[in-house]
Amino acid sequence: MNLSNRIKQLVEANFDELVSTRRHLHSNPELSFEEFETTKFIASKLKDNGFDLQKITETGGYIDIKGKNPGSRTIALRGDIDALPISEQNEKEYTSKNEGVMHACGHDVHTTCLLGAIQILNELKDEFEGTIRCIFQPGEEKLPGGASIMIKNGVLKNPRVEKILGQHVMPLIDAGKVGFRSGLYMASADEIYIKVIGKGGHGAHPHQNIDPVVIAAQIITQLQTVVSRHTKPSIPSVLSIGKVIANGATNIIPNEVYMEGTFRTYDEEWRMKAHTLIEKICNDIAEAHGAKCEAEVRKGYPFLKNDEDLSNNAQAWAVEYLGAENVEDLEIWPAGEDFAYYSQEIPACFYRLGIRNEAEGITSMLHTPTFDVDEKALKVGAGLMAYLAVRELGLK
Questions:
Q1: Is 108 a catalytic site residue?
Q2: I want to staple 82 with a disulfide (CB 3.0 to 4.6 A). Which of 32, 156, 178, 315 is the partner?
Q3: Catalytic residue check, 294
Q4: Based on the domain organization, do 127 and 149 belong to the same domain?
Q5: Which spans in 144-201 are helix H?
Q6: 3-class SS at 156?
Q7: What percent of the chain has pLDDT over 90?
Q8: Is this model's pTM higher than 0.90 or not?
Q9: Which of 30, 35, 80, 82 is catalytic?
Q10: What is the pLDDT at residue 396?
């Protein structure tokens, strides 16, 4: 029996356990860097397979699956474990038991698939060369990002990890399919915070005031030129202001206006220039009107670049495992993801796992209270991750 069929057979045998694991995780979500019970559960599942979780942060850790000649090469697989501050609106037997917390980004699936891949790889460890480090990472959803902390604490060392693979659920792709993109894929994600401080007063006497609402409106408009008139057209960039608070009334000009937004791009040099430009635009417009401005751009996750050789190989191996009709090409996706920190350190491939099923009404997007997955995707997620790891290391 060839490798692909052997892995599929192992996945099929473990499918009920995968579903049970995913439902337990989904029912018991925990917020970023608070995943204590989740980590205990992961550790217990690993113990059942003969592994001890090596803690590297309070809630994050890894295990190493050692094949033949384990010191020859080491690659890594990553699954994130945290949930979001969202109140779930699904009515399923596995709906979140923790009020206001939900696995609305599919990290329960990622963790389950990595656990499933470990079961498969453990069965095959006498047949591949090298070591596979399996990383259970906390805090993907919250700055500074669990990936940055785990890297700082040495998760890519002892032995040195050469390459890393990770997957993420995608509601736009049908269950049973996956998507790949080599090169630039996900954007850096920075947070913009602006406070315009004017002088409030009666709306009927604007000449006696310094109107922060009008100033804020000019700032919002002028900030759009950061992308449209200062960025090279070849560098994808997005600047959006998503929150504006001006607590005045029909006849009251407030003293302050508060705003929040995001800036995303794919070039580090331009990113830093844009931060300076954003703050300068805000301060200059406020000063021109006799107001004050407090503008800050908080640096978030870097951009995610998929290594071309690793990603092209992984996509070809996915075609081997799933068939060409089940492997899609992805477009640039300007959301942020802390897997990007790994991609800044070593060759990385971050691909998408389809979880959509329109017939069953599973179509909600990520970070929504009705998000859910077609659990048949667990078969693909666990099996493909194992297959890619073995193909990268090579069978003995």
A1: no
A2: 32
A3: no
A4: yes
A5: 146-152
A6: coil
A7: 98
A8: yes
A9: 82
A10: 60
